[in-house]
Specification:
- The structure is a single chain.
- The protein has a single domain, classed as Orthogonal Bundle (Tetracycline Repressor, domain 2), CATH 1.10.357.10.
- About 75% of the residues lie in helices and about 0% in strands.
- The chain is built from nine helices and no strands.
- The longest helix has 27 residues.
- The radius of gyration is 20 Å and the shape is elongated.
- The protein starts with 5 loop residues before the first helix and ends with a helix.
Length: about 200
């Protein structure tokens, strides 16, 4: 029997993972069985188990690939010259979130399921923690570029904007499912109004 090429192997793995995303989007991690995923793939059980030994392996891969996609799409901002400013970055975050909800699966649901799994399993907690540490590093690099390009005022706290963006990311996902997702312009106005209120309070104290 001829050996499968690495490219073909990765393609099969990707196909199985897409099937898992569909199942996890519909039913969540815990209500989805390996049999559900196998049926979705249309492959034999032995073929699926050759790539993923258990449902836990599939859950881990689904969460990690979802986070990797999110990071990669936002890391592209650093390749632009000049980089998009804070308002444009916020717009991209909202657009990115909306794009992850389209099609046959919803990657934002995978993200929410991963957070719940992180509360249960230390291994997943480490994965999620590392993801947000990487995102904090990404937004810190963006903030440094904004400072060098004069997009943010001199003397701005270099940790403030990264903290804001990293906090907004999961909040927007939750609100998009449980209430409603505001547009980027409304969020930006809210942040500006809050900053103005805090500045006014500081000047009065």
């Amino acid at each position: 029997m001829p050996k499968i090429s690495e490219a073909a192997r990765l393609e099969v793995r990707r196909s199985i993972l897409l099937s898992a995303w569909k199942c996890f989007s519909r039913q969540g991690f815990h209500a989805t069985s390996m049999d559900d995923v196998i049926a979705e793939t249309g492959m034999s059980s032995s073929s699926v188990y050759r790539y993923f030994r258990s449902k836990e392996d599939l859950v881990d891969a689904a969460a990690q690939d979802t986070m990797a996609q999110t990071y990669s799409s936002l890391a592209e901002l650093l390749d632009q010259d000049p980089v998009p400013g804070p308002a444009e970055t916020l717009t991209m975050l909202v657009d990115n979130l909306r794009s992850r909800r389209g099609g046959e699966y919803d990657l934002t649901k995978i993200s929410m399921a991963a957070w719940a799994e992180a509360l249960r399993r230390p291994e997943m907690h480490d994965v999620v923690h590392q993801f947000y540490a990487k995102m904090t590093g990404l937004f810190t690099a963006l903030t440094q570029r904004w400072a060098s390009e004069g997009t943010v005022p001199d003397g701005s706290d270099p940790n403030a904007l990264p903290s804001l963006f990293v906090t907004l990311m999961p909040g927007m996902i939750v609100m998009s499912h449980l209430y409603e997702l505001p547009d980027a312009e409304s969020l930006a106005r809210g942040v500006a109004d809050f900053a103005a209120a805090m500045k006014s309070r500081a000047s009065q104290s």
